Amino acid sequence: MAGIFAKIAAGEIPSYKCAESDKFYAFLDINPLVKGHTLVIPRREVDYIFDLDDDELAEMVVFAKHVAAAIKKAFPCRKVGMAVLGLEVPHAHIHLIPMQTEKDMNFANPKLKLADDEMAAVAARIRENFEAEGK
Ligand code: 5GP
To answer: What architecture (CATH level 2) is domain 4-132?
Structure first.
């Protein structure tokens, strides 16, 4: 049975979509550390990111690079940080987090609670920038 992230990528469970390709999907983390906190997943359901095939992992990182560029344009920051945990959801994912300081990458920080319309607006800004890149 498909897990929650596979269902999100298939559009069976709603998400705030930021970007997509035939192989990968990017959407807002439902409990963001900062505004613009995005998850990148392969459509193929694999738990541990380092179990992905070499080519798939390389393509996923390149896809994440383009999503990060869109995040940085939408939410100016010093850099977009990249983290992989995967302890909660068993479907490989990369966290992309716009950083002003290293503290923005602390997963023990309290999470933001954004209203539905604000989450939609955040995702739309990232999506517009991603689509403008034509990737
Ligand atoms: P990890 O597996 O990397 O430890 O954490 C999973 C991340 O996915 C968390 O940051 C959590 O907020 C996020 N998350 C868990 N379930 C959902 C969901 O149903 N939708 C979205 N958009 N994010 C989720």
So the answer is: 2-Layer Sandwich (3.30)
Domain positions in the chain are: 4-132
Q: Is 91 a residue of the active site?
A: no
Average pLDDT, the chain: 97
C-alpha 53/C-alpha 36 separation (Å) is 28
Q: Does the beta carbon of 108 sit less than 6 angstroms from any atom of ligand 1?
A: no
Q: Is 38 a pocket residue for ligand 1 (Cβ < 6 Å)?
A: no
CA of 88 to the centre of ligand 1 (A): 7
Q: How confident is the model at residue 133 (pLDDT cuts 50, 70, 90)?
A: confident
